[in-house]
Amino acid sequence: xxxxxxxxxxxxxxxxxxxxxxxxxxxxxxxxxxxxxxxxxxx
Amino acid sequence: xxxxxxxxxxxxxxxxxxxxxxxxxxxxxxxxxxxxxxxxxxxxxxxxxxxxxxxxxxxxxxxxxxxxxxxxxxxxxxxxxxxxxxxxxxxxxxxxxxxxxxxxxxxxxxxxxxxxxxxxxxxxxxxxxxxxxxxxxxxxxxxxxxxxxxxxxxxxxxxxxxxxxxxxxxxxxxxxxxxxxxxxxxxxxxxxxxxxxxxxxxxxxxxxxxxxxxxxxxxxxxxxxxxxxxxxxxxxxxxxxxxxxxxxxxxxxxxxxxxxxxxxxxxxxxxxxxxxxxxxxxxxxxxxxxxxxxxxxxx
Lengths: 43, 299
Known about the structure:
The complex is a heterodimer.
Chain A: H1 3-42
Chain B: H1 14-20, H2 23-39, H3 46-70, H4 72-77, H5 93-114, H6 117-138, H7 145-149, H8 151-165, H9 170-193, H10 195-201, H11 206-209, H12 212-235, H13 241-263, H14 271-298
Helix pairs in contact in B: 2-3, 2-8, 2-14, 3-5, 3-6, 3-8, 5-6, 6-8, 8-9, 9-12, 9-14, 12-13, 13-14
C-alpha cells in the first residue's frame, strides 16, 4: 500500500467511525427519551 | 497494516450509505407518514411519535438499500442510476445487503417498542412487499410492476395513522388508495422521458413494453381514478373544505396535465411529461399537508 493509499484508507475509516459514533450516540439519547416517555405515560 | 495494494479497496463512505436509502424518495415517505399520524387525531407522546416516524424512515431506507442491492445490475445499465454507490463501484454488494437487512430489522423492532403490533406488522409487511413482491418478483417481469408494486409506497400514511390510533378506518384506507392510484401516472411520466434507459436495462416499464400510446392513455385513466379518490374524504365528510378545495383544484390541474400528455406523441424535449412528473410530486405533498392541517383545525 502506498502512503497516499494508506492516508485515504485511514481517513475513510476515521470518517465512518465518526458517523457511526454519532448514530450510536443518537440511539442512546433516543432510547433514553423513549424510556422516560413510557414512564410518564404509564404513571 | 498488512493489506497489500492489490487487495486494497476503500471502504464505502458514510455518504454512500445515506445514498443507498434514496433520501429524496424518503422525504415523501416521511411526510406522508407524519400526515397520517397527525390526521388520525390521536394523542401520542411527541417522543413516541418521533420514534414511530423514524421507524418508518428506517424501514423505507432499508427497503431502498435492499432494492439497490438486488438491482445493481440494472442500475449499472441506466444513466439515471449508474452513479448509485454499488454500480459506481464505491460500495460492495455485501455491505449494502448487511446495511439494508440491519436497518430494516431495526426499524421493525423500534416500531414495536414505541407503538403497537398492527403498525409493526404493517411496517414489516410494507418492507417485504417492496423487496420481495416489487423488486424481486414484478420489476423485471411485467409492465404492471409499478401498479401492483406501488402499494408498497402507499403504506406510510396508514402506518403513521395506525401507530398513533391503533386502528384502521376509512380515511387511512383512502390515503392508501390515493398514493396507490397516483403511482402509475407519476412513474410512467418519468418512464416516458427515461424510456431508452429502461429499454437498455430490459425493464418492462409500460412505455417500453406496451408502447407510448398505451402508457399515455393509462396515465390519464389512473389520474381520473385518483382525482375521484382525492375528493372522497371531503364528499364523505371525513375532511373539511380546506382539504376539499385543495384536492379539487390540484386534481383538476393534474387531470389537465395528464390529458396533455395523453394527447401528445413523442418528441425529444418531453416538456409536458417532465412537467407532469414534477407536478405529481408537489401534488402529493400539498394534498397530504392540507389533509393533516384540515384535520388538526377540526379538532
